[in-house]
Structure formats: structure tokens, C-alpha cells
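Inverse folding, one chain.
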């Protein structure tokens, strides 16, 4: 069975389980409809998982885990969702948790083994697949996966034992014959590979992968006519693998059918525009046909995508000599000499280029070096400069790429039903995310309610602010947010009007105040209200003045200190954007306010978080990690703190800790973390 087919089998198995469970849920729904229990939440999570809402499904499984942490199933289901998102670290931890709670479920071992296979921990993968087979000894998928891993470990006899066991049960399985052929090919047994791939084409004659593999083996055995037939069949049945066109192009080239060879190389480049081999082979052909300018373009492209391939420099250097571009040719041959100092032709060709440039002395030195090296013929290494086969096994792609098929089976489909209906749906790890910290948390009347915020489990509340909201001294309740809503022009005008109204009130209150009745409480509340109005229209200087007046009247308004620090930061940002110099003292005052809040409200997690962000700006990463950690200690579901701490760990080179934190951030709803995990994992 091919890797792609195994991935689809795995996904199909999961989906069958989901459907069965969903069916049983609907059967029992009538009696428990009004009761939100863990079975229903789990079923909804499975449903979300089935429909590619991986991020959302994780949120449902989180709920079940909080309510019933002793259950193994939600951990396993959450692991599957995390795998789909490329979060192997988090998925492994969840599999461990599932096995710890129920060590007798083969699916948990299989899933963890799959992760180990993905991350190239082959010995661990083999152990887990074997463990799964203890509880499900005849499971075809488990056996096939173990065989694949054994082959990767070069334990070919054991791998073939597993495949032959399956073939004994299903001798006409084209997929199993294909898998056997792949194992034989890895072990250099081309006779066995030829026989197995031939059987694969007999039992599934319209699968291009079968013909592709057969053609490759035939080409390796120099059975050119047979290979041409097989590769043409693969292409006829819809192959989109560039290697088929490369290999058929080689056959056409050997048969001196240059037009057909060039057409196949052109197609290969179209199918794989970043594959150096496609450009290299086409360049060699164009070079032989005397089309030096376009050969030069091909070799340059090949170097762009594979700068480590010295043979490409050699061929490009030869072309440059033909085009009389002596200096560029000399540079290419010197590149070869640096990497392969015993490759004699490079010295002579570099000398030729130096002679053409009029550098007789340099040319003589190069020839002398070559002469001296020629006395050590046993040390001389040669380069293989002929056109090369596309020798990676057809359809045997990287396991990470394979899992993208599992995560989005119909990725290339244009069906409306497969399109994402939300930002957080599907394989979100493929959507590019900038490597930047989550922003500070602010207090505002307005907070965006996007998917990004709605999924997060951070507790955006605090008793101090809740208590102040209950006094109803502000026109709207204050809310914590990382993303303030953009105001319309009408809303801005309303806030300017409110500033005017509040200014009149402040004037009256100050006029009415006496030493015996200062009206401090009401005046303080009015200054607070106007400060927020100033902040909303981005007049941070005035906001700072007002909130400072309020603090002088009532030093127990700890959230006001928090706001003052935030607005001071906003003002500093604005000054930097306008090219103005910023005073270090302003920064110190901001940090002092955060410390004041922390000292008087030790459970105010947002102050720790914002201070950590400021420390990151100052590049004090060790201290920043400490404050992120304290924020997490106050709120174990603080998604933004996990995210930023993860990035900070990665920045200082502690990738393992960073990925673990990003995994937790993704679990808590910051789905953008999965893109970063896929890049740094």
C-alpha cells in the first residue's frame, strides 16, 4: 500500500468511527436533549473534526477534558485534531495521556506511532505499531505501517514478512504488491521489485503510480522499450508526477528523439517549477542541441533551487565557455574546486577561462596544481555529469506532505462544499503567520469579536474591573481585549462630543468643591470617564493627564494604573512612528505602573503579560519569560501568554520549549500558532 493510500485509509478509519459515534448520539438524543453532557460535547467535537474544523473541535474536547479528565477518548480525539494541524508535540502529549488513562486501546498506540513516523523517530514508531498489533493483531493498516517503518530501518526481511502476511490474506491487492515492490527497491532487489510492480499493474491497471514504479525499475534494468511503455501508461492514466516525464524524457534522449525529450522536460518543469532536476536535465539536452542561451537559463535555475549540486556548476561553466563569458565560467569552476579539490577537469577549464581573460600567471598556477594532483590519482574524485533519473520512488513523498492529504483530502477540489467557511477552518497551519508577539491587553469600551478572539480561552475579566463596571459610572462597561475595534467617523464625533460634555461637568464639579466637600469621588469618576474618551480618539497625552488626576484622588483604582501604563505605551508607539525621540523615563514610568498593579493585585495576570511584552521590546528575554510564566500561573488558560512565551523561547534558541508553548496556545484557541509550529518543528 502506498503512503498516500495509507494516509487515506487512516483518515477513512477515523471518519468511520466518527460517523458511528454520531449515529449513536442521535439515537439517544431524545431523552437528554436539554442536558449538555460530555457525550454530547464529544459528539459535537467529532462532528467538527469530521468537517475539518480542527481548531473548533479542540475547543470541544478541551471542555470534556475539564469536566472528566479521567476519560481517554477526548485526549485521543484531540491528538488527531492536532495532527491535522501539524502539532506533533501536542499530539504526542495527548496520546500519552490517552494511553495513561487506558493502556488497552490500539488506536492510541497507532496514532502515536504515526506521529513518530512523521517526526522520523522510527524505532519508537515501530514499537508503537507493534504494541497496537498486540491488541489488534490482524489490523491491516497497523501491519502496513509497521512494514513501512521496518523498511525505513533497513530491516527488509521483517518488513517483507509483514507485507507477505497481508498478501497471503489478499493476494490480489495492488496496493500491497506496490508496497512490496517499494520495499524490494529500497533493498536493491530490482528482480523482486519488477515482479511486484508488474503484479500491481495487473490488479490495478489504471493506477498511474503502479505504472510509474514499474517504468522506473525497467529503466534501471536498461529495459528501455518496456520502460517507455510503462511510463507512457502512467502519463496516459493521469500522472502528475514530474519524475515520469523526466524518466521518459531520458529514454527519448537515448533514442535520439530530442523533440519528444524536450517536450517531456518542458512538462516536467511545468509540473515541478522548483525541481532542480527538471531544469538540469533540460539544460543538458539544450546544451547538446547547441541552444546555449536557454541551457544557461536552465542551469542557473537549477542552481537557484539546488545550490549544493556541483555538477550543475560544471555544466553551466561549460556553457559559459561556449558563450565566451570567461569571468563567469571561471567563477563556476572555482566553486567546484573549493568543494571538490581533487576534481581535475575543473582546474584545466578554470585555466582555460583565465587564459582567455589574459591572466597567464593564474592559468599556469591552476595547471600546475592539476599536475601535482594528478600524481595522486587514487584520491581524485569525478563528477557524474550525465542526465540523471528521477530516482525517488513514485508517489513515495515526504511523510509530512503525505499528512496534508489526511488533513484535507479534497484539497484540490473546487467543490463549494469543501471551501472554508471560517478563518479557523481546515489546515490552518498552511496559512502564513508573521513571527510577532500577540499585542498588549487593553481596557476599552470596544473589543473585536472575531474568530481569533472568540476561540481563545483566556479569562478576559478581573474582579476589580467587574466591580467598577457595576458602579455604572461609565457610559459602557470596560472590557479587556488585545484588538480594539476601529471606530467609524460618526463614533469618533460622538466621543468628541462626550469629551465636551464631560469637560463641562468637571468644571462644575471643581467650582462646587469646597475643602469640607471636595466631591472627590464624583470628580475622580468623571476624570476616568474623560480619560477613556480621550484614549478612544487617540489623544493619549490628555488621557494620561486625566487618569493621573484620578489616581491622585484615589490610589486604590488599580486598573487606572494599568490603563495609564498602556496609554503611555500607545503614546511612545506614536512618537516612534512619527520619528520623534522617546524618553527612557517614560518607559520606566510605564513599567513602574505595571509593578504597582502587580504589587497590589498579585492575581492581575494582564499586568504580568503586558510587562513581559515590554521586556521583549527591551530584549530582556529572560525576564520576559519569567513574567509570562507568572501570568500563566495566574491564569492557566492564558493563550496569549503561552504564544508569546513560545516565540521568546524560539528567539533564544530553545525551540523545544517554544513549540510546546505554541502547541498550548493553539490548543487554547490561537490557531495561528499552528503555522509557526509547522515552520519551527
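Residues assigned per position:
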Amino acid at each position: 500500500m502506498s503512503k498516500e493510500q495509507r494516509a487515506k485509509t487512516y483518515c477513512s478509519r477515523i471518519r468511520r468511527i466518527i460517523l458511528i459515534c454520531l449515529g449513536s448520539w442521535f439515537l439517544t438524543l431524545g431523552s437528554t436533549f436539554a442536558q449538555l453532557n460530555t457525550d454530547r460535547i464529544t459528539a459535537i467535537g467529532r462532528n467538527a473534526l469530521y468537517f475539518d474544523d480542527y481548531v473548533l473541535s479542540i475547543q470541544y474536547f478541551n471542555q470534556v477534558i475539564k469536566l472528566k479528565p479521567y476519560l481517554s477518548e477526548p485526549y485521543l480525539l484531540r491528538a488527531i485534531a492536532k495532527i491535522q494541524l501539524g502539532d506533533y508535540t501536542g499530539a504526542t502529549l495527548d496520546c500519552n495521556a490517552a494511553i495513561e488513562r487506558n493502556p488497552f486501546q490500539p488506536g492510541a498506540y497507532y496514532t502515536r506511532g504515526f506521529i513518530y513516523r512523521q517526526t522520523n523517530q522510527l524505532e519508537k514508531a515501530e514499537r508503537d505499531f507493534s504494541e497496537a498489533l498486540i491488541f489488534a493483531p490482524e489490523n491491516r493498516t497497523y501491519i502496513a505501517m509497521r512494514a513501512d517503518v521496518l523498511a525505513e530501518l533497513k530491516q527488509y526481511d521483517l518488513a517483507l514478512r509483514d507485507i507477505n502476511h497481508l498478501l497471503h490474506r489478499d493476494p490480489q491487492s495492488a496496493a500491497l504488491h506496490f508496497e512490496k515492490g517499494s520495499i524490494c527497491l529500497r533493498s536493491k532487489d530490482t528482480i523482486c521489485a519488477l515482479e511486484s510492480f508488474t503484479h500491481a499493474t495487473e490488479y490495478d491497471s489504471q493506477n498511474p503510480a503502479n505504472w510509474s514504479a514499474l517504468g522506473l525499475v525497467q529503466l534501471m534494468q536498461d529495459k528501455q522499450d518496456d520502460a517507455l511503455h510503462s511510463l507512457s501508461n502512467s502519463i496516459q492514466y493521469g500522472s502528475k508526477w514530474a519524475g515520469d516525464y523526466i524518466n521518459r524524457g531520458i529514454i527519448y534522449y537515448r533514442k535520439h528523439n530530442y523533440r519528444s525529450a524536450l517536450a517531456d522536460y518542458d512538462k516536467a518543469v511545468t509540473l515541478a517549477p522548483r525541481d532542480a532536476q527538471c531544469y538540469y536535465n533540460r539544460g543538458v539536452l539544450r546544451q547538446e542541441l547547441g541552444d546555449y542561451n536557454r541551457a544557461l537559463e536552465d542551469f542557473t535555475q537549477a542552481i537557484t533551487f539546488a545550490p549544493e549540486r556541483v555538477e550543475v556548476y560544471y555544466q553551466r561553466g561549460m556553457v559559459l565557455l561556449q558563450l565566451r563569458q570567461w569571468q563567469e565560467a571561471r567563477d563556476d569552476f572555482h566553486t567546484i574546486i573549493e568543494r571538490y579539490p581533487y576534481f581535475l577537469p575543473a582546474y584545466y577549464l578554470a585555466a582555460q577561462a583565465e587564459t582567455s581573460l589574459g591572466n597567464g600567471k593564474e592559468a599556469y598556477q591552476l595547471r600546475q596544481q592539476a599536475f601535482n594532483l594528478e600524481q595522486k590519482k587514487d584520491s581524485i574524485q569525478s563528477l557524474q555529469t550525465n542526465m540523471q533519473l528521477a530516482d525517488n520512488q513514485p508517489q513515495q513523498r515526504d511523510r509530512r506532505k503525505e499528512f496534508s492529504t489526511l488533513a484535507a483530502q479534497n484539497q484540490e477540489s473546487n467543490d463549494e462544499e469543501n471551501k472554508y467557511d471560517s478563518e479557523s477552518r481546515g489546515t490552518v497551519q498552511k496559512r502564513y503567520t508573521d513571527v510577532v508577539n500577540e499585542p498588549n491587553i487593553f481596557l476599552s469600551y470596544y473589543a473585536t469579536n472575531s474568530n481569533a478572539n472568540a476561540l481563545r480561552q483566556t479569562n478576559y475579566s478581573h474582579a476589580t474591573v467587574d466591580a467598577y463596571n457595576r458602579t455604572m459610572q461609565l457610559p459602557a462597561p470596560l472590557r479587556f481585549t488585545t484588538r480594539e475595534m476601529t471606530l467609524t467617523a460618526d463614533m469618533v464625533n460622538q466621543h468628541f462630543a462626550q469629551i465636551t460634555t464631560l469637560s463641562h461637568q468637571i468644571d462644575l464639579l471643581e467650582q462646587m468643591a469646597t475643602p469640607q466637600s471636595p466631591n472627590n469621588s464624583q470628580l475622580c469618576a468623571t476624570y476616568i470617564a474623560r480619560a477613556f474618551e480621550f484614549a478612544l480618539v487617540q489623544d493619549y497625552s490628555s488621557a494620561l493627564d486625566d487618569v493621573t488626576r484620578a489616581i491622585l484622588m484615589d490610589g486604590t483604582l488599580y486598573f487606572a494604573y494599568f490603563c495609564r501604563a498602556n496609554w503611555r505605551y500607545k503614546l511612545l508607539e506614536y512618537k516612534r512612528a512619527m520619528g520623534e525621540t522617546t524618553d527612557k523615563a517614560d518607559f520606566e514610568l510605564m513599567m513602574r505602573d505595571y509593578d504597582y498593579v502587580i504589587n497590589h493585585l498579585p492575581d492581575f495576570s494582564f499586568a504580568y503579560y503586558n510587562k513581559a511584552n515590554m521586556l521583549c521590546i527591551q530584549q530582556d528575554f529572560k525576564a520576559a519569560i519569567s513574567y509570562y510564566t507568572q501570568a500563566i500561573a495566574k491564569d492557566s488558560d492564558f493563550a496569549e501568554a503561552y504564544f508569546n512565551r513560545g516565540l521568546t523561547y524560539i528567539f533564544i534558541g530553545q525551540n523545544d520549549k517554544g513549540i510546546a508553548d505554541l502547541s498550548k496556545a493553539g490548543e487554547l484557541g490561537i490557531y495561528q500558532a499552528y503555522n509557526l509550529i509547522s515552520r519551527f518543528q
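The beta strands are 442-444, 479-481. The domain at 442-680 is CATH 1.25.40.10 (Serine Threonine Protein Phosphatase 5, Tetratricopeptide repeat).
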